[in-house]
Write a structure and sequence with these properties.
heterodimer, A: 190 residues, alpha/beta, 7 helices, 31% helix, globular, B: 478 residues, 5-stranded parallel beta sheet, 17 helices, binds iron/sulfur cluster
Chain lengths: 190, 478
């Protein structure tokens, strides 16, 4: 369960080049990407993230097709490093959604009319607190509560904070058995 | 039960299946580059894990590398750190690497196929969304994030839930001058940038079968721009002819065994796709984008659309924003749009056939005054092949710059960038705001349109150009 203030980003098709432009991808660490978040848009003093009421917000509410384009996981890291814990949208790009699950960023997929109502509520009252409940799969604000969609497995992993590699290595015998059965003509790089 | 091509390849790679969990899939080939891998290697180091199968892993340097003066140290210190990190990681973990200056260096999606590493029926992944390119061989190939890169390095597997299947059938024959790039731009305009979400697309039909391997790669490459993780084309004689004799292709008895297995790799006649889209090749024309996502495209003969005429509220506001960013006025014929730069290259259109097609248009012609033309081969092998054929001379005599291999202005991580407000015609795959440089404006085009645009300085197809007079040829001594 997470509760925090939210930012209404009234744009659809927010691609990962907008979330973090390529020139900010040059770090070799997993942190420190917040300066690249929406870098081009943040030059505009009126951009929603620059407004005083957006400071400290932890929930981003965006239009449909969020996270399209490049597979850069840096997009998830930039959102997290900036302080976001949840992105709400009516549609996420597949790779972004997978990356978010690994990076501990919740992607809450709600119906577009619910996004619109949440946008209106936030624009009317920027201090509105939004609660995202992974257990009940609901997004709530004021007196409203709407369901969101997330697959069971991702939800379970987010709740348990599991390491994927550890999980897979428990099946190392099956991997080895499969490996032994691969056709000999398959190519190698060595 | 009848199955689609994608389902057959998926099923053949399931290591483990359990109720309520994603499938664990075996990965046959893992391609690595400098931008999305450093944090993954770090993760291995921290956990004390090796790379499970360095012999199924191949790294190359592409996104950051300069395309001129490549013998000098990389000037941008931050790019240099990233490339150096890849070199150290590959040495430490035993992963083969094609570095700057090596004849097999180049864009990761050009390098794999040209070595013969990408073969039908394989699973191929890379920390790069355009991994979909490799689906042209009938491989199941898709982009992954850095955490997944680490997972594949450590285990040679990935946990995944099956994709849905979408058939895109292109019937009929393409008119002369209409290329694979125009086909895929038209498909994306048809189904939208989110239309393929959750799907693997299988491209089929007469027009697809008639495409060369390189053209098929162009189509599959941009599947991600339609929102799909992967694109596939069933292997056939064209695929076999391309692979035969390549350095990593099977040889002798192995070749026969492989070909026999590949013959099973097609969608069964009565298999059912989750969704189907059909286009008629005869209706397709050279296509260009006018907006800031790859779905905002139209035939070159059309005009900049009027957002007021768009009924969907979100599409309308997206179009309005795009036109403001692109500095375009509704109703302007697309052929009147002037560009400052032409970029010919990328994993979409940086192969030898693309360079040949563009060179054919530029032969005996001159680049328009004030237009900068960058020709960046997709790999060093492509560069060397082009130079063998004398294409570099054609480009240089026309007034274009001839460069070394890399991603270059496709994403502007190296010094090849648009300045704010500059406009390009680009054979790459993304026209997002600032993709080719902060404030830069991008029109996505085919190599033919790129070359013709270089000549006039306006978005142009080769059919619009006056013929080259024989005296021009004589004067140039070609
Ligand atoms: S050429 Fe462009 S799209 Fe292709 S891998 Fe490089 S940056 Fe990505």
């Amino acid at each position: 369960m997470h509760t925090g203030r939210a930012v209404a980003l009234r744009r659809s098709n927010v691609d990962t080049d907008q979330i973090i432009p390529a020139v900010y991808l040059k770090r070799v660490t997993r942190t420190g990407f917040e300066d690249g978040l929406f870098a081009a848009w943040r030059n505009d003093p009126d951009f929603v993230l620059n407004r005083p009421e957006s400071q400290g917000a932890t929930v981003l509410v965006a239009g449909s097709d969020f996270g399209t384009g490049s597979s850069r996981e840096h997009a998830v890291w930039a959102l997290r490093d900036h302080g976001f814990r949840v992105v709400v949208s009516s549609k996420f790009a597949d790779i972004f959604r997978g990356n978010a699950g690994k990076g501990g960023l919740v992607t809450a997929c709600v119906a577009q009319p619910d996004v619109e109502r949440l946008w209106s509520a936030l624009e009317a009252e920027p201090a509105t607190e939004v609660t995202v409940d992974l257990n009940a799969r609901t997004v709530s604000w004021g007196s409203e509560s709407v369901p969101f969609d997330i697959d069971d497995y991702t939800r379970w992993r987010l709740m348990e904070g599991l390491d994927d590699v550890d999980l897979t290595l428990t099946h190392a015998d099956q991997v080895a058995a499969f490996e032994a059965s691969r056709p000999s003509w398959l190519p190698t790089t060595a | 039960m009848p199955r689609t091509l994608a389902e057959k390849v998926w099923e053949a790679h399931v290591v483990r299946r359990a109720e309520g969990e994603p499938d664990l899939l075996y990965i046959d080939l893992h391609l690595v580059h400098e931008v999305t891998s450093p944090q993954a290697f770090d993760g291995l180091r921290v956990a004390g894990r090796p790379v499970r199968r360095p012999d199924l892993t191949l790294a190359t340097e592409d996104h950051n590398v300069p395309t001129m003066d490549i013998e000098l140290p990389i000037a941008d210190p931050v790019s240099r750190v990233q490339v150096d990190a890849l070199r150290r990681n590959c040495a430490e973990f035993g992963v083969p690497l094609h570095s700057l200056g090596d004849r097999d260096q180049g864009i990761v999606h050009v390098v794999g196929p040209q070595l013969g590493l990408t073969q039908p029926g394989m699973t191929v992944v890379c920390g790069d969304s355009h991994t979909s390119t490799h689906g042209a061989f009938g491989a199941l190939a898709f982009g992954i994030g850095t955490s997944e890169v680490e997972h594949v390095l450590a285990t040679q597997t990935l946990s995944l839930t099956p994709f849905k299947t979408l058939a895109v059938t292109i019937d009929g024959t393409l008119a002369p001058g209409v290329t694979a790039k125009d086909v895929i731009l038209a498909v994306i305009a048809e189904i939208g940038t989110g239309g393929g979400q959750g799907y693997v697309i299988e491209y089929r039909g007469e027009a697809i079968r008639a495409l060369s391997m390189e053209a098929r790669m162009t189509v599959c490459n941009m599947s991600i721009e339609a929102g799909a993780r992967a694109g596939m084309i069933a292997p056939d004689e064209t695929t076999q002819a391309y692979l035969e004799g390549r350095p990593r292709a099977p040889k002798g008895a192995d070749w026969d065994a492989a070909v026999a297995a590949w013959q099973e790799l097609h969608t069964d006649d009565d298999a059912v796709f989750d969704r189907e889209v059909v286009l008629d090749a005869a209706t397709l024309a050279p296509f260009v984008t006018w907006g800031t996502n790859p779905g905002q495209g139209l035939p070159l003969t059309a005009s900049v659309p009027d957002p007021a005429a768009i009924t969907d509220e979100h599409e309308r506001s997206a179009a309005e924003r795009a036109l403001t960013y692109m500095d375009l006025v509704p109703g302007t014929p697309l052929r009147d749009i002037r560009v400052d730069t032409v970029f010919l290259g990328s994993c979409t259109n940086g192969r030898i056939e693309d360079l040949r097609a563009a060179a054919e248009v530029l032969r005996g012609r001159q680049v328009a005054d004030g237009v900068r033309v960058l020709v960046v081969p997709g790999s060093e092998r492509v560069r060397l092949a082009a130079e063998d054929e004398g294409l570099d001379v054609v480009f240089k005599e026309a007034g274009a710059e001839w460069r070394h291999a890399g991603c270059s202005m496709c994403l502007g991580m190296n010094p090849d960038q648009l300045a704010p407000g500059e406009r390009s015609a680009s054979t790459s795959n993304r026209n997002f705001e600032g993709r080719q440089g902060k404030g830069g404006r991008t029109h996505l085009v085919s190599p033919l349109v790129a070359a013709a645009t270089a000549v006039t300085g306006r978005l142009t197809s080769p059919a619009d150009l006056p013929p080259v007079s024989p005296s021009t040829y004589a004067g140039k001594g070609i």
